[in-house]
Amino acid sequence: MKKYQLLVYICLSSFFLNASNHDLVGYWHNWNDVNAPYIQLDQVDSRYTVIELAFATPVSTTDMTMQFSPTMVSAPTLLTQIQTLQSLGKKVLISVGGATSTIDLSTTANKSAFITSMTAIINQYGLDGLDLDIESGASILASGSVLSPSATAQINLIDAVKQIMQTYRITYNKKLFLTMAPETAYVQGGMSSYGGIWGGYLPIIHALRDSLDILQVQLYNSGSMLGVDNNVYNSGTADFISAMTEAVIVGFNTSGGFFFGLPASKVAVSLPACTSAAGSGYIVPSVVKQAIDYVRGMGPNPGSYIMTSSLGYADLRGMMTWSINWDAVSSCNGFYSYADNYQIIFGTPTAIEASAYNHITCYPNPFQNQLIVRNENETTTLHLFNYFGQEVSSYQLSKGTQTISTTHLPNGIYHLKTGSWNASFVKQ
Q1: Which of 52, 135, 183, 353 is the catalytic position?
Q2: 393 SS3 class
Q3: How confident is the model at residue 348 (pLDDT cuts 50, 70, 90)?
Q4: Is domain 23-346 in CATH 3.20.20.80, yes or no?
């Protein structure tokens, strides 16, 4: 039995470390807002790994020639800033649409204009990819079935993205990075009804699933939604995160046919940076962490939704927020608090796990034969739980810095907890 458990731990550790690269995705405003001011692109917090420029928009509702021009700096300056981010390993994408733009590719002329103009924007700024944040228009209205859409506008959008990607591959000899940020009605809403906005993105996601890098459904500005257990869940809760996230991983039935889920490595949890950033759906960081830990199989269930997978999804891709600009405002729940929470949940290459809610710091992560813990509180007990939720060790922590021997622990994923602080670590 012990040999079997060790093998499980080693496999899980290898999977967790190598199967997924995590991303923090953020939208960047190409405008100045008194409440969420403009940020120079090359000054974005370094924890954001995918930056999506908001937005490329059409000339009009009938002319799908897409436009994007920097509003606060010159085009050459923006290009230099993009190149600076890329030199640091970041991906910079152009996002299409947004809340106020209608995208309609019902005609061949509009399809052609969309392809030509989006390709030109990508080439002008040397961008890494394309994000579909289309929130209105015939191109995202469900018709036919999930596997076979019938609306010309939707078929043309799918084909347009494929052509843009093909041209990019030929030009740059690499894949165009592709993300999508639909609202919940257009995705999970397909469980309750299929047609119009309900499930409208499902044919697009299905047709482009092999090319899609990250699906980041907006878990905000949303009404209540069905989960795959046929129960209703409300936005702004831990249950909404776990139910909506698992739905797009395991797939679900619609009256337009079955939507086959995506690998967890292509799914990000998407939330507003604070209450001011969206009309609804904000969740405090501690609850976000509890929910994502549960989804990843690294923590207890913080709500009532019970996932179909008891092991969870350790390779969940990461998190997305609207927006970087809001996250950078100190009055928006603290200066870069969303990025802080991402770092706490998913760690970084240096992997110092720290909580904004107490005074515990623990590193390195991954670890081998020891952990270093700094405790700025009074004496407390640190509990270590294995991947299956069983407590395997506990340590008395005095105030100050101390080294904990972990030579007796087999390789694997561990959850550390003391008081309100908790974090996931890997021994290798």
Answers
A1: 135
A2: strand
A3: low
A4: yes
